[in-house]
Amino acid sequence: MKFFSRTFPLIATLATATLCSGPTRAADKVVAGFIYVGPKDDYGYNQAHSEGCRGVQKLSWVKGVEEASVPETTAVQETMRNMINLDGASVLFPTSFGYFDPHILKVAKQYPKVQFVHCGGLYTEGKHPANVGSYFGYIDEAVYVAGIVAGHATKSGKLGFIAAKPIPQVLRNINAFALGAQSVNPKATVQVIFTGEWSMPVKEAEAATSLINQGVDALTCHVDSPKVILETAERRGIFVTGYHANGAKLAPKGYLTGAEWNWSKVYTDYAEAVKAGKSLAAGTIPHLVRGGIKEGFVKVSDYGPAVTDAAKADAEAAKAKFLAGTMVIFKGPLKDNTGKEILPEGKDLAQQALELESMGWLVAGVIGSTKN
Amino acid sequence: MSAVATAHDPAATRGAPRTAVRWRPALEAVVLPVGAVLVALILFGAFCLTQGRNPLAVFAAIYQAAFGSGYSFQNTLVRAAPLMLTALCTALPARLGLVIIGNEGALVAGGVAATAAGLLVSTTSPLVVISCMLLAGMIGGGLWITLVGFLFYFRSVNETISSLLLNYIAIAVLNHLVNGPMRDPSSLNKPSSFPIPEDKMLPLLGSTNVHFGLIFGIIVCLLAWGLMEHTTFGFKVRMIGGNIRAARLAGLPVTRLGLITCFLAGAAAGIAGMVEVAAVQGRANESLAAGYGYAGILVAFVARHRGLPIILVATLLGGILASGGILQRQFQLPDATILVFQGLVFLVILLSESLYGKFKFFKETGA
Q: What is the ipTM, given to two decimal places?
């Protein structure tokens, strides 16, 4: 066949090129590997981390290597090994929650000199390898502020929340959003729809449409990529607050504000520690790092054009209290949406409270059930 | 469909004289797929050019990351192992003339059943745990696809649609179980089953990163090949695929053979699910549905539903997938690039099937 004669020179060139190529190492740079479960431009979870990678790369002595759409299988173990063996990474940020057990734990044991830092706060002293660390943000603080703005914006008093799964991290955000809205609009309700998947744009669009049809006029979400929800809200002319990353571009009219991660700050801290020769195993880098608005782990998007001055004033007041460390989101008296008492009068749960990590309830005013 | 399954069966379709030179068709079976891969490389090279990358450097990197060293070949094999098993879930029923794409569901059903069995006997010896998991995985996956066969033979439900829909049901059942009856209460933010004790999981092969699932994959593919090509059972199945009415007239128990084949197909995918739990994840959770089932469909069609080529095609696809990372890290190409490459390779290979018998050069000339 003709292809043979045409492609034979190609094979020869290919073979030569193969022999000449080899792993390249940046000798004097701190190489940091970033691994994402979805695309880098999802306007959501993965984009937030990728922006963090770009942020830390502003330091001239950091080289970031990224790999996106890596599933939570042996594929991520392979990517971690490749980043260490081929790219010379000395610190890895595998960002998806499901990467931790068993994948990070397994590879971390094989490479005790590499720092494995995972997003999600799962590290347990004594149980997990010493070169593993964990970080997470109290993003419910930013969600609470977004709730205040949404509570001001709504005319029907009906807010909507599209959530992936009824797990503690998600429930905490739903509750914070509802409490924020109720702090300025006591009658506001938050209707929740769980899609059951972290990334299922079709169901998310359906949920958004059905909530809007029921009279919801301000929407927010906790899914991996809020893109389709922001777009649906904008098309239907209602308000929306973002999550994970800034979504103002997708909803220029209706975007009120949003809860964003600020991973640049977190990654820069880790990179500086690694450059200074610190390590998790030696205990000079803390194994668990958490923070909220005050610590700069999370931030609130710039306000959109529809946000009133009164809403801005209330939101800024709450932000100031978070910055001062005097704000408590979950304080008694607090009842869940089945009428059961969660917190009695006078009892508060600070952000670090363990009860919040295993949350299984929705506060009064939230329409929906955790038994989805 | 039956055309795809049986069109190129040398023994059945070619009545060449015994004395004829047989190398020409054999050469055709090698030249066409290799030529197809080369065409795909040229097309993908053009794609790389549009992205401003040197195609030769990209090819070299893909080769390096997939087959270039013992280390990278291990990565390829790890990725190929589950594909060998899930491919059989489409390949075996294809010989009956059925297009079954319920591989993902059978994998999940097998994985869940294997987890349940492993947890029930978790205090016994590793060999017992693994054997029970294997058996349960095969039964779980097998029954799942038998259900498809049952719907087809007894209720005339289209097997492609029913098997596709059963994928979603299997994943929903998995989610229900790991959120409810099987849930480990300490798995707060990623609901999972209780874990299989680590010392009772499937080991790695020697000092490599390749787990035992590869051995399962190769053995099962070889068994499937032997069964379908070299036994009367396989002959009967192929006969049903060739002409179901003729098979009935010949007195073959079509329904029984069909259900058995469906069970074996599902059992193969079920083993993939079992391996994923016993060698990789250590527990059942949403990570089980990682798309190996869907990739397996592709492998089965490209391998023309034969056991031996499945091993090769799965390794090829494993290599392509294993090189996805280098394109992102070294060439800053988007993460979907490797899917473009994979799509091109497999599309051109499937297109090349239509060329069989079209070149005079490959025709038998007789003695």
A: 0.86
